């Protein structure tokens, strides 16, 4: 004959716990008891006029966005209109694709420094070819890098342009007779503009964007 504990085991496994049925009631009571307090607290953050208040009880001042401000006065209207015209002009600015290969890339980076600050013209370097309008090839192009140059060029959307920057990118430069150097990046991609110099003047690139 089985002991008492062994006979009671199957019944204990099939028995329904009574505590489970009381949990939703407890949660419902807690929700009903806290709802009035939450609504009262939310009403305390607003004054008699319906304006939001700070923690100290003062009326909180809301600052509108620049696009939501009312244009008061002729001077503010003119300045706001000129700002919109400047933003409209910048939206068609060129976004160069950086393809720095050698020391000419340092001069290309110099364009974003405060001395020249090409960002003020809306010209921003992009690291993705799908967001670029023009590719700037700066430096010595080797045979090993040539397939990557062509692959990046093929990923750029139309219309697209290529700038060959410096003597090494134009025709090999100092390394023209090296076995591993491509004698001009125009053998790999079609070049639209050639910038001479070793190294080139950064101001030449600013003049290039004006074209």
TrEMBL record:
One of its GO terms (molecular function) is metal ion binding. SUPFAM superfamilies: HydA/Nqo6-like (SSF56770). Residues 103-206 form the NADH:ubiquinone oxidoreductase-like 20kDa subunit domain. InterPro entries: NADH_UbQ_OxRdtase-like_20kDa, NADH_UQ_OxRdtase_20Kd_su. The keyword Mitochondrion does not apply. It holds the Pfam family Oxidored_q6. Keywords: 4Fe-4S, Iron, Iron-sulfur, Metal-binding, NAD, Ubiquinone. The keyword Zinc does not apply. One of its GO terms (cellular component) is mitochondrion. It comes from the Eukaryota. Residues 37-57 are annotated as: Disordered. One of its GO terms (biological process) is electron transport coupled proton transport. Signal peptide: none annotated. Belongs to the complex I 20 kDa subunit family. This is NADH dehydrogenase (Ubiquinone) 20 kDa subunit. It comes from Aspergillus oryzae (Yellow koji mold).
